Amino acid sequence: MSDSRGRLNRDQVLRAAVALADANGLESLTMRKLGVELGIEAMSLYNHVANKVDLLDGMIDCVFAEIELPAGEADWKTAARRRAISAREVLSRHRWATALMESRTSPGPKTLRHHDAVLGLLRGAGFSIEMAAHAYSLMDSYIYGFALQETSLPFDSGESTTKAAQAIMARFAAGEYPNLTELATQHVMRPGYDYGDEFEYGLDLILDGLERAVSTG
Amino acid sequence: MSDSRGRLNRDQVLRAAVALADANGLESLTMRKLGVELGIEAMSLYNHVANKVDLLDGMIDCVFAEIELPAGEADWKTAARRRAISAREVLSRHRWATALMESRTSPGPKTLRHHDAVLGLLRGAGFSIEMAAHAYSLMDSYIYGFALQETSLPFDSGESTTKAAQAIMARFAAGEYPNLTELATQHVMRPGYDYGDEFEYGLDLILDGLERAVSTG
DNA sequence: TCAACCTCCCTTACAACGTAAGCTTACGTT
DNA sequence: AACGTAAGCTTACGTTGTAAGGGAGGTTGA
């Protein structure tokens, strides 16, 4: 499937794996299918990755590499804003990635460079070390959490109506969840509604709060 | 292993699965091991859960049931604060849960009741529907994201030093990540440092921001 | 009363997975 | 030409989720 002739390298393997996970979901990414995609046997992949965990680690690092680094020109707030929006966009493009970050305990070089650049932005803007830690934890928690919620959103992904789903619907009909019903009917189901639009509201609230904390601290 | 005599039911299966995932991690939760834990064969589990996905869905619902519901007595801010802290504590107790929420597209009854109660708290405090949606998205994104970061924290979980880890350490030594190094040496490695303490800083910043938005909106 | 029928457990079996082990091939150096 | 190494291949194994079917005990309807 890969059109480039010649020997394979790790990067091509990782890129193909990312593409496969994007297309069919992470659970359908197997060594054999990835081999087929690259025109080689599954076992040959082990010339480029140590094992599947290493493959997943590499994929995460690929994803981080796509996030726009803070340029450092503008003021910290707009730079942080752009970085956050880019991060969300990337995580939304690779829906499998956010949940995968869990067990990944060994970050790759691109990931570390990204973290370092963001910290550098904050420190350069005059944040104390402690305040930079606060800000980073807050911003990234929000970004990852939002991305995580976005992936789990579709209320029922078109699958057949299971017995459990029917039971839930019955509870809805019985008025057991009045506030959810209200939110769904009067807000979510409006034409043009897009949960992704929520992102910038929360982001700006957080950035404003940080700005206030920095100026008064 | 289960000491209760008599027939099994779904709840006991779910509880045992949660305990097993807590103890050994989600990846070691298999139908066979769960069967052993309950004193039955793997296939007998299918009398209580439809399949493994259903099992995982049920486990998530169990976790949500542990989160303290807003009592409704106090003002919205302290109620929301308590709920958020309880949620983080629960997710930290069940480290496998946050990442699992990804593909779980069909929330269980306990989960829905939880969401409904939080929305009810906000609406009861005078939040408009739109503002309640903002607030909920923001709070939960932060909670889940923080929990997600917490699980992936241990910089190296004591495993053998792989070649990749060595390469990373070499980059550290070469001063390639000055800001990360600074943060690590002057902040994180201080005695008594606990990343979990960051949670309340961000939470309060968010709640203050919401309060401001509500009073001026 | 007795036969039909659940419910909950069992055993057997299978395809798909990650990957250990070992072999072959092709290329860059010398 | 000789050789080391990198990158492919084949075979094989243990583990996974679960399809298929059987059997024991309790419940129910005629």
TrEMBL record, chains A, B:
<dbReference type="InterPro" id="IPR003012">
    <property type="entry name" value="Tet_transcr_reg_TetR"/>
</dbReference>
<dbReference type="Pfam" id="PF02909">
    <property type="entry name" value="TetR_C_1"/>
</dbReference>
<keyword id="KW-0805">Transcription regulation</keyword>
<dbReference type="GO" id="GO:0003677">
    <property type="term" value="F:DNA binding"/>
</dbReference>
<feature type="domain" description="HTH tetR-type">
    <location>
        <begin position="7"/>
        <end position="67"/>
    </location>
</feature>
<dbReference type="Pfam" id="PF00440">
    <property type="entry name" value="TetR_N"/>
</dbReference>
<keyword id="KW-0804">Transcription</keyword>
<dbReference type="InterPro" id="IPR001647">
    <property type="entry name" value="HTH_TetR"/>
</dbReference>
<protein>
    <submittedName>
        <fullName>AcrR family transcriptional regulator</fullName>
    </submittedName>
</protein>
<dbReference type="InterPro" id="IPR036271">
    <property type="entry name" value="Tet_transcr_reg_TetR-rel_C_sf"/>
</dbReference>
<dbReference type="GO" id="GO:0046677">
    <property type="term" value="P:response to antibiotic"/>
</dbReference>
<feature type="DNA-binding region" description="H-T-H motif">
    <location>
        <begin position="30"/>
        <end position="49"/>
    </location>
</feature>
<keyword id="KW-0678">Repressor</keyword>
<dbReference type="InterPro" id="IPR009057">
    <property type="entry name" value="Homeodomain-like_sf"/>
</dbReference>
<dbReference type="GO" id="GO:0045892">
    <property type="term" value="P:negative regulation of DNA-templated transcription"/>
</dbReference>
<dbReference type="InterPro" id="IPR004111">
    <property type="entry name" value="Repressor_TetR_C"/>
</dbReference>
<keyword id="KW-0238">DNA-binding</keyword>
